[in-house]
Amino acid sequence: MHTSIQHRLRKISEDQNKDDQHIIAELTSIVRDIEFREKSTLPSKKALDIFESHVNDIGMAGETIETGISDFDECIPLVRGEYVVIGGRPAMGKTHLLMNLALNMSTKVPVLYCSFDLSEGLLMKRMVAALSGISLNQMMLGALNRLELQLIESVKAEFQARKLWISDQRTNSLQVLRERCRKHVEEDGVKVVFIDYIQLIGSDRYRHNREMEMSYVSRELKAIAREFNVLLIASSQLSRMVETRGGDKRPILSDLRESGSIEQDADKVFFLYRPEYYGFLQDEDGNTTDGITELILAKNRSGALERIQYARDANYTRIISIGEHLARFSISPDRLEELKDTPF
Questions:
Q1: FRET partner for 185 with CA separation of 20 to 30 A, picked from 32, 301, 328, 335?
Q2: Which residue range(s) make up the domain with 240?
């Protein structure tokens, strides 16, 4: 038996603090690792057959998974097997973006949303707010009128029609996460997995060295994407260096918190940037930055780097297109004519 397998089995037997769920997940992982070692090498002809099959799948079934953000889908394809990281400082809107992407994608493909940050109840409230457009604050206070209550009832049916599974993991175990992903892939055909967020996942393997632990977690997330052939989208915190740096404070790859392995492992890395948060109220062309978020593609193994924009609605619930957002600030031609004749 391989030395690392023996070491993992010994650790399981010696640790009296693990619950049954964690032990089962760890043992299952060991069995899967042994199976993977035995079939991990492919002859060149077999590899070519897999490639041709994959090409055919893309052409016939539409392997690219749309986000529902038109500017995004037109220039940045996301496909199964990719490990995608979305990084941002607090208050940049990471959970808001992931939640909206999950809602959009789940109309067409099965989606698993794993939250280590929010409870299932709070996450559900935020998703209902996104679908209804009703302020989350209003929902939390219970300050809803009859029409809003009716709207929420109609949204429930819309939500149930989606292919979406929500998991608020009560343990931060990486092995439990892996087995949960496996279960939903095998039983429900899940094709997209969201994880919010990387730094809240733990591993027994390097519990006394945070950087090594995060490196291991990142490698395992990439392995989950490849092994289960899912698009895995995970949010990540950024270091405080963003705040102390001069200039426009746009994030860069070295800002990924606690591990350079996240940058190395990810197939794509996006950063969220809200200019108004840092006091930049207009862009280079003089357009307002109110409600605008930049999505910066800082690493892309399958294409060019891009930078797109999207906006949020007035209640901080939905993602909307820039065109729809800017229309709120436009003045009609008739009103412009009136202003010409108005004395000042």
A1: 301
A2: 65-340
Please confirm whether the linkage preceding 197 is cis (ω < 30° from 0): yes
What is the pTM for the complete model shown? 0.78
SS3 content of the chain, % helix, strand, coil (to 5): 50, 15, 35
What is the number of domains present in the chain?
Answer: 1
Does an H or E element contain 303, and which? none
What's the pLDDT score for residue 133?
86
Average pLDDT over residues 65-73: 90
What is the CB neighbour count within 10 angstroms for residue 49? 12
The pLDDT score that the predictor gives to residue 173 is 86
Question: Tokens 């496996």 — which residue?
Answer: 182
Structural domain includes residue 43: no
Angle at 135 between CA 133 and CA 138, to 5 degrees: 140
Residues in the chain: 344
Judge whether residue 196 has pLDDT over 80.
Answer: yes
CATH of the domain at 116: 3.40.50.300
In a domain, 58, yes or no: no
